[in-house]
Amino acid sequence: MISIRRFTFQDFDAVQEFYSRAIEGDIDRRIEAFRWIQMHNPFHNPFKDVNNNYLLGFSNDKLIGYSGIMRVRFYHFGRPFYALFSQETLVDPSYRRHGLATKLLAEVNRSDSFLVSLWHNERILALLGKKGWINIGSFRPLKKIHKLESLKKLRLGSPVSIKLLMPFSYLYSRMRSSRSTIADEYSVESVKKCGAEFDDFFTRAAPELGILSDRSSLTLNWKYINIPHKEYVFLAARDRAKLCGYAVLRIEEQEKKIRKGIIVDLLARPDEPEVIGCLVRRCDDIFRSNKVDFSVCQVSSPIFRNVLKQQGYYESKTRPTNSLLIYNAAKSPDTDFVKNIKNWYFTYGESDGNMW
């Protein structure tokens, strides 16, 4: 007998025991991440907002899966509105393909709020499509090679041939040789705490970027500064004393001793793309000094994407899982506007997976 209910404060131990069966790796770190995501989101209290919280699936009294739901503040041309972000769906391997994911999604769909979802696996993606979610478009993250000799070790699709290596070799050499000739007009420094100046900056930038999630100091501190189980580098770009943009990055160890750099989030005003160029160059400097083999970035703004391409980034191949889906569009501030992915600004920072 399978039952479904909302997460409560008493369920942390059940979630930890569930992780021991459902995932591999550091269980203590995983539960620490779960607690941080649940308890410290500045716009979501899971014990007050009981109708918009994680859904837990039980077989008798045994937790066998969940579907993550979290309240998020978004902006539509600078005006705030609230939506629900549909996060990961995780099922105990012993109970997969028994219909639990479908049951959880049915409960998610009972919501009367606007829902947004990113980066699900292909099975969940197909399930969402069958249950009324609208796939409003796909996107192609950007990649850059920092160590040409590491290309053969990277899983970039089919085996890399000498002919395919040649254009990367040319671009790599060009970028390496030209880096020292670029003079930045902005000062870039690391940030240990986000305060009122970040709120003011976000207020200036948000109206120019269509739909985007909150990037006030509350959110930035929660996601990147105060988070206890993950380490980020947070960079701010200033023209004299005025904050003009920021970038957040981290470095991830992968298989075969490959080091991956990730530009998790970045923001500037669209009429100041040179700020993004300055921040990306500083990110690349950090990646090189930390012997990163390749780096990735997701940013949806065409203006900012062009800046990254000028810095040697290229578009990765299209994947079905790189899609943006919505549900209950009529509950959004602009039903037609939200159905076009070109009207959304999003980065890797939108994904809850980046916080685990």
What features would you describe in this structure?
The chain is 29% helix and 28% strand. By secondary structure, it is α+β, with helices and mostly antiparallel strands. The strands form two sheets. Strands 1, 2, 3, 4, 5, 6, 9 and 15 form an eight-stranded mixed sheet that branches. Strands 8-10-11-12-13-7-14 form a seven-stranded mixed sheet, sandwiched between helices. α1 (12-22) crosses α2 (27-40) and α8 (273-289) packs across α9 (302-310). α8 (273-289) links the parallel β12 (259-268) and β13. The longest helix has 17 residues, at 162-178.
Topology record:
Layout: E1 2-6, H1 12-22, H2 27-40, E2 55-59, E3 62-76, E4 79-91, H3 100-108, E5 115-118, H4 122-130, E6 134-138, E7 142-145, H5 162-178, E8 187-190, H6 196-205, E9 211-213, H7 217-225, E10 233-239, E11 242-253, E12 259-268, H8 273-289, E13 294-297, H9 302-310, E14 314-315, E15 323-327
Parallel strand pairs: 4-5, 12-13
Antiparallel strand pairs: 1-2, 2-3, 3-4, 3-9, 5-15, 6-15, 7-13, 7-14, 8-10, 10-11, 11-12
